[in-house]
Amino acid sequence: MKLYAPWEKTFNRISTPFEHFLHAQTTTGIILMFMTVLALILANTPLTETYAHFFHTKVDITVGSWQLSHTIHHWINDGLMAIFFFIIGLEIKREILVGELSNIKVAILPILAAIGGMILPALIYFGINSGGEGASGWGIPMATDIAFAISALVLLGKRVSPALVTFLVALAIVDDLGAVTVIALFYTDEIHMIPLALTGLSFLVLVAFNRFGIHAVLPYFLVGLVMWFFMLESGVHATIAGVIAAMAIPSKPKLTPIDFTHHTRNQLDEFDNYPVATDHMMHEKQKAILINVKERIDSVGSPAARLEHGLHLPVSLIVIPLFALANAGISIDFSSIGETITQKVSLGIIAGLILGKVIGIFGVAWIAIKLGIAKLPEGSNMSQIFGVSFLGGIGFTMSIFVADLAFLNSESMIFQAKVGILAASLFAGLFGYFWLRFIAKKPN
Q1: What is the pLDDT of residue 276?
Q2: What's the confidence (pLDDT) of residue 19?
Q3: Which CATH class is domain 16-187+237-254+301-439?
Q4: Within 13 Å and on the Cβ side, how many CA atoms surround 305?
Q5: How many C-beta atoms surround the C-beta of residue 242 within 10 A?
Q6: 149 closest CA partner among 166, 127, 126, 131
Q7: If you average pLDDT over every residue of the chain, what do you get?
Q8: 332-to-156, 168, 279, 399, 425 alpha-carbon distances in Å
Q9: Residue 13 has what pLDDT?
């Protein structure tokens, strides 16, 4: 029997795409936490001016007389975050086609819970801020940060069932879809029709690529980049282009699994028939066979799956950390923090992310289960659903993103919003984690 070193065991273990997804989200959550703390430190030390100056530095792209000029902060929020939204689009598409949202009997509970977890926070926030300057921020507490929420649940290990993790993932995916829709429909000030029409035309080109069976990634990337530019010029937030582009990426492989298996077996049989060359080196024909098998492996995986798998790491290690570093740094005056939290914007966000999410997610789930519309995730109970509903109140990434859109020209409102988001997310995350760890018992 062959013995493996510990790291070899890791490489020999086969992980499902869902396990890769969970690992990527957990990694993102840990890095997010670190970068958030770093941003807060930079914003509250003598380095605060250097920190602010760096992210307000202009970066220009010039071609002849044409110029695109934005600050680093803007490039991160409108440019790099489009890649994050592209990943969200791919995740939504996968879940609908082959994931937890493809089976309505399984999907109905997280879908209903997510809808409740979006509507109630928005209503609570609007109730507190109705008629005031902060009324436009109603979309801020609707969002759940999938990376932080899943990280907290994964850290609990065997204390929660895999079905409960799946429930939270499906809920967060539906939540993301809702947040994207809200951004597209309600946080657009002015629409320019010609760039928007060109955006639609670009999307039709991507769909044509899909219909004609183009599986190479480069054509989609080039047209997607053009579509992002037109979306930026249209007035609709440019990151929405990422979600739309993801919908056009082929999800069907070029080669069916049966054809792949048949062809690969024949190739491997041919590979074995060649004698081993000197010093155990492969025959030239064997090398050619391996190249052919590799090409077939690429063909049996869809472009959507390859892109989702390939982009998770750079998004986890670069895009989201940079977003946190650029947006989480708020200068906190601890002597006035109590006054800030009691401002209507902060209060609305805190009440929305904590009370709204819990009442929305847990309340709707309880009603749906009692009415027989849905059933509990296997190996879980209502006490655990209550704990998960608190994790749904971690709003960080998407909430900050919406806050910047809602209060575009008001630094004081953005500050109040970020204080509320950080306070609510911290409380919701800690309470949800400790509830699931020490109070909610896993069913026997």
Answers
A1: 61
A2: 62
A3: mainly alpha
A4: 17
A5: 23
A6: 166
A7: 86
A8: 32, 32, 67, 19, 17
A9: 47
SS3 letters across the chain: CCCCCHHHHHHHCCCCHHHHHHHHHHHHHHHHHHHHHHHHHHHCCCCHHHHHHHHCCEEEEEECCEEEEEEHHHHHHHHHHHHHHHHHHHHHHHHHHCCHHHCHHHHHHHHHHHHHHHHHHHHHHHHHHCCCHHHHHHHHHHCCCHHHHHHHHHCCHHHCCHHHHHHHHHHHHHHHHHHHHHHHHHCCCCCCHHHHHHHHHHHHHHHHHHHCCCCCHHHHHHHHHHHHHHHHHHCCCCCHHHHHHHHHCCCCCCCCHHHHHHHHHHHHHHHHHCCCCHHHCCCHHHHHHHHHHHHHHHHHCCHHHHHHHHHHHHHHHHHHHHHHHHHCCCCCCCCCHHHHHCCHHHHHHHHHHHHHHHHHHHHHHHHHHHCCCCCCCCCCCHHHHHHHHHHCCCCHHHHHHHHHHHCCCCHHHHHHHHHHHHHHHHHHHHHHHHHHHHHCCCCC
- Mean local confidence (pLDDT), 392-399: 92
Give the total residue count for the chain: 444
Asked if pLDDT for residue 5 goes beyond 60, the answer is no
- pLDDT at residue number 4: 42
State the helix-helix crossing angle for 17-43 and 303-314, rounded to 10 degrees: 30
The lowest-confidence range among 199-208, 236-245, 258-267 is 258-267
Percent of the chain residues topping a pLDDT of 70: 90
- The Cβ of residue 33 has, within 10 Å, a number of other Cβ atoms equal to 16
For residues 28 and 92, the model is more confident at 92
pLDDT band at 207 (very low <50, low <70, confident <90, very high): very high
Residue 290's Cβ-side half-sphere holds a number of Cα atoms within 13 Å equal to: 8
Q: How confident is the model at residue 2 (pLDDT cuts 50, 70, 90)?
A: very low
The structure tokens listed for 55 are 């992210």
- Phi-psi category of residue 64: left, alpha or beta, with phi > 0 → left and psi -120 to 50 → alpha: left
Q: Is the pLDDT of residue 161 over 60?
A: yes
Strand partners, 58: 71
